[in-house]
From TrEMBL:
<feature type="domain" description="Phosphatidylinositol-specific phospholipase C X">
    <location>
        <begin position="22"/>
        <end position="191"/>
    </location>
</feature>
<dbReference type="InterPro" id="IPR000909">
    <property type="entry name" value="PLipase_C_PInositol-sp_X_dom"/>
</dbReference>
<protein>
    <submittedName>
        <fullName>PI-PLC X domain-containing protein 3 isoform X2</fullName>
    </submittedName>
</protein>
<dbReference type="InterPro" id="IPR017946">
    <property type="entry name" value="PLC-like_Pdiesterase_TIM-brl"/>
</dbReference>
<dbReference type="GO" id="GO:0008081">
    <property type="term" value="F:phosphoric diester hydrolase activity"/>
</dbReference>
<dbReference type="InterPro" id="IPR042158">
    <property type="entry name" value="PLCXD1/2/3"/>
</dbReference>
<dbReference type="Pfam" id="PF00388">
    <property type="entry name" value="PI-PLC-X"/>
</dbReference>
<dbReference type="InterPro" id="IPR051057">
    <property type="entry name" value="PI-PLC_domain"/>
</dbReference>
<dbReference type="GO" id="GO:0006629">
    <property type="term" value="P:lipid metabolic process"/>
</dbReference>
Amino acid sequence: MSENGFAQNVDLQHWMRDLPEQIRNIPFIYLAIPGSHDSMTYNITRSSGLAPDAEPILKRLYPLFHGTILRWTITQAVDALQQLLIGIRYFDLRLATKTGSDDFYFTHGVYAGEIYQPLKQIKDFIYEHPYEVVILDFQHFYGFTPDDHQRLMRFILNLFGPQLVPRQPDLNGITLNSLHRLRQQVIVIYRHQSVYATSEFWQPQMMPSPWPQQDNITGLLNFLKNVKRNPAMGFVHQAVLTPTPGFILFRWVSNLREKCAKPVKNEIYPKLSEFSPGRPIERDGKTRVNVIIADFVEMDNAIFSKMVIKLNFKLLNTESISHSYG
């Protein structure tokens, strides 16, 4: 199928399956993969309490400005299954413990939902979509003891077991086709030193995710264009604006969707077409993307996923495709 034909008719829930064979044989770390930022914040509700990662200023203001703060902590509108169905294959996960509970919760300043249901949605999805591969990036852990890490890691191992893609020294051998043959569909990145207790999880340096920390479009675009990556590792480009307390203060009655996500959609998404996946080459100075993440990924009929997935067709135009990756 041609690039334009694929883009117009892409079946987002099966997009990895439907990629041309040449692309399915390119190393996974050189593909363009859409992901969601703060993936599980859709579960934040008016009854959500403050979590251990809340900034001090949030703790002071929360009782007075409850509704406003929630509008600026929610970054996604649809649940894990809906995100998968519109092509999202990377999840940015931040977790916290809660006093008086043995459960683990997703968090973004305030508690989102308990982790089991969304992770079960992901497990069910990959069972029904054997060609799709999902990255679970356990980014932050708040209020965790060493025992909590052990319990969480056991839970993940028990849930996904043989479907996990084990850590390996050379990531060039991992392709969509090789993973399908092995029936491995879940990459877990665990950004804590506990990762060394198991060989099933990937270390943080295998897929760096540098934070742009920008509240304006120009700064964000400069960051995305100039950030450097290791050619032997995966990478996460964060196409997100980060509102500072001062930024929010002047936009108090608005929300993150209107003042951060929509400007990114309108001004950064069109620029994404200038980016390319593939092996980073120092001499051409161009950024090579792997995972790209955004807020409110469902906007405009999932235009974000479609744009990122379409970037993979640039790999077919690479004259050196056969010997670069073979």
